[in-house]
């Protein structure tokens, strides 16, 4: 019975985390689009891979959008994990430590 409860909690966390990440990405993209228009006076590139988009503009858009949307998704997912931990008293199973000890990791090759 406890395993079923954990599975259900894990599914609830996964759904909540996904919804939070998608919402955060949408908000970040909307803010990024507005900021891009304000800074450049034109719309952001719809497809940076399009050869009609200047290379420097495509690179700048890809770097900014990838970074900001990634950070927004990560922050939303962390917030969801924090809420889950406060509600259940433990981290979601996907985020629980797996007893890995960095001191026992193989030394980097030189």
TrEMBL record:
Entry superkingdom: Bacteria
Keywords: Membrane, Transmembrane, Transmembrane helix
Identification of the protein by name: DUF4235 domain-containing protein
Membrane-spanning ranges: 12-28, 58-76
Native organism taxonomy: Bacteria, Bacillati, Actinomycetota, Actinomycetes, Propionibacteriales
Disordered: annotated segments: 87-110
Organism the protein comes from: Nocardioides flavus
Record InterPro entries: DUF4235
Annotated Pfam families: DUF4235
């Amino acid at each position: 019975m406890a395993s079923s409860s954990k599975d259900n909690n894990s599914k609830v966390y996964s759904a909540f985390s996904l919804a939070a990440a998608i919402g955060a990405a949408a908000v970040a993209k909307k803010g990024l689009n507005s900021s891009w228009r304000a800074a450049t006076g034109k719309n952001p590139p719809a497809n940076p891979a399009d050869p009609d988009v200047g290379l420097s503009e495509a690179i700048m858009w890809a770097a900014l959008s990838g970074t900001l949307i990634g950070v927004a998704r990560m922050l939303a997912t962390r917030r969801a994990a924090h809420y889950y931990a406060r509600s259940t008293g433990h981290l979601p199973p996907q985020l629980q430590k797996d007893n890995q000890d960095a001191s026992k990791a193989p030394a980097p090759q030189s």
